[in-house]
Specification:
Elements (H helix, E strand, L loop, with lengths): L3 E3 L2 E3 L3 E7 L2 E11 L2 H19 L3 H17 L1 H12 L3 H21 L6 E4 L5 E9 L2 E5 L7 H12 L3 E5 L5 H13 L7 E3 L4 H10 L5 E5 L2 H13 L3 E5 L4 E5 L5 H13 L9 E7 H16 L19 H16 L3 E4 L2 E2 L7 E2 L2 E6 L4 H4 L6 E7 L2 H9 L3 E2 L1 E5 L3 H10 L4 E4 L15 E2 L2 E2 L9 H4 E9 L2
Parallel strand pairs: 7-8, 7-10, 8-9, 10-11, 12-13, 12-20, 13-18, 17-18, 20-21
Antiparallel strand pairs: 1-2, 3-4, 5-6, 6-24, 11-23, 14-17, 15-16, 19-22
Length: 476
């Protein structure tokens, strides 16, 4: 059984649960202990005790430590990638790629650990010096989702440690194996006791205990909109710094002048790869009328040709849905879209050689932007296709959503590309690229209901994981 890591010691929880392969429910990936609220208290107090020494440690020490983690991740990419594919359902190449990305993130922040900059600013008063410096926030609680079970933990843990914070980390209850493998590497790389703590379990127990704990100074959460909103209220009551990455209903616009050889694979990737289980997935495909029919015909054919199957099979392009609950949710939205008047192409539950949660990709043609299936996040391989007359209508439909994470446009027009980048109400905008798929060294985040707080990733991560101190000195 895999255990929690509290104050440098592997610790058994109060109960345990099996981690089940969604492609083959007879395959148990592992058995993982679950922490109690009392164990979260132990972890938070251990993180507080370890905080002063880690905050004042040499930047070179922190950098070397993070580089050691990166090297071990690179060396273990095939083994961890296989674990990830079994527990989450990503295809093996996607899972190995995600593990490599986690390693790249740790390597990036190994460099950032020795590049924490400040400012020396001239005072408006004579004989006064002003220094502006960044200092660690303190103890940070990190709560991550199941869809990227090693990359998202990496892009929270690495900057937290790089900037001198201590960590209490809760991975998703559905996918603890990848996160546990990362925790083992962090521990084996010489992490001091209490600096990094892993507490696995249900969000209603472990997550709530982290957010409400008085020793936790800041919380970074990636997950659903309802949980994120409740967490924001809870964090505000405790006067905690909060960072939330939540849902998306991301538009991909296809203009009449788009190259179909570019647009079709771009949309296919953004909407359906990773089983559509990406917050940046293209779930609203907004197509100009002149190219609409040809685009739908090509995309339907390409979608039908995708191979759904076991993620460890080299021929598989789309793996299973992560759980039975998620599969039922997806199939319910297929019924909703059909009941709302959309023509549903695909979207059936599939019976394959193993007992798993398989679904064919679904496209909702003749959809409108006011349908539930076009407004609510499904988080599966389902996308609405909405016909529009021109660029102005396409932009208006793209922005008509409570979310604002990612958006995209396929066009050969420089004018349309520039105008869309300028006027799209999203935190990330893609031109002739899938809405899903971002670099690790630049900011990640959205607007409106998708995000709250400062951006993740890249140098912008310092905004959340550090506090700014302004120091005045009289030199007269």
């Amino acid at each position: 059984m895999k255990l929690n890591l509290i104050n440098g010691a592997w610790t058994e929880g109060t109960d345990a649960a099996d981690n089940i392969n969604p492609a083959d429910t007879s395959d148990i990936v592992g058995r993982f202990t679950r922490a109690s609220a009392g164990q979260v208290d132990q972890a938070a107090r251990a993180a507080r005790a370890a905080s002063p020494a880690w905050a004042t440690a040499s930047p070179q020490l922190r950098s070397d430590f993070l580089e050691a983690v990166a090297q071990k991740l690179f060396a273990s990419k095939d083994e961890i990638g296989r674990i990830l594919a079994r527990e989450e359902g990503k295809t093996l190449p996607e899972a190995i790629g995600e593990t490599v990305r986690a390693a790249q993130i740790f390597r990036f922040f190994a460099g950032e650990a020795i590049r924490v900059a400040g400012d020396v600013i001239a005072s408006v008063r004579p004989d006064v010096d002003v220094d502006v410096v960044r200092e660690p926030v303190g103890v940070v609680g990190l709560i991550t989702p199941w869809n990227f079970p090693i990359a998202i933990p990496a892009w929270k843990i690495a900057p937290a440690l790089a900037y001198g914070n201590t960590v209490v980390f809760k991975p998703a209850d559905l996918t603890p194996a990848s996160a546990h493998a990362l925790a083992e590497i962090i521990h084996e790389s010489g992490c001091p006791a209490g600096v990094f703590n892993l507490v696995m379990g249900r969000g209603s127990v472990v997550g709530d205990a982290i957010v409400s704990h008085p020793e936790v100074d800041a919380v970074s959460f990636t997950g659903s909109v309802p949980v994120g909103r409740a967490m924001a209220v809870q964090a505000a009551q405790g006067m905690k710094k909060i960072q939330l990455e939540m849902g998306g209903k991301n538009p991909m616009v296809v203009m009449d002048d788009a190259d179909l050889d570019t647009a079709v694979p771009t949309v296919l990737n953004g909407a359906f790869f990773s089983t559509g289980q990406r917050c940046t997935a293209s779930s609203r495909i907004i197509v100009q009328s002149g190219i609409h029919d040809a685009f739908v015909d090509r995309l339907s054919a390409e979608m039908a040709a995708l191979t759904v199957g076991n993620p460890l099979d080299a021929a598989t392009q789309i793996g299973p849905v992560v759980s039975d609950k998620q599969l039922k949710n997806n199939l319910n939205y297929v019924d909703i879209a059909r009941g709302e008047g959309a023509e549903v192409i695909g979207g059936e539950q599939l019976t394959l050689a193993t007992d798993g949660f398989f679904q064919s990709p679904a496209m909702f043609v003749n959809a409108t932007n006011d349908m539930r299936s076009s407004r609510e996040e499904i988080f599966g391989p389902c996308a609405s296709v909405i016909k529009v007359a021109d660029f102005d209508e396409a932009l208006a439909v793209a922005n008509d959503t409570e979310f604002g994470l990612s958006s995209g446009i396929c066009t050969a027009s420089l004018k349309h590309a520039c105008e869309f980048k300028r006027r799209s109400q999203a935190g990330m905008v893609m031109v002739n690229l899938p809405t899903a798929g971002v670099d690790y060294h630049v900011p990640f985040g959205g607007r409106k209901g998708s995000s709250m707080g400062s951006r993740e990733q890249g140098r912008y991560a310092a905004e959340f994981y550090t506090d700014v101190k302004t120091a005045y000195s009289f030199a007269g």
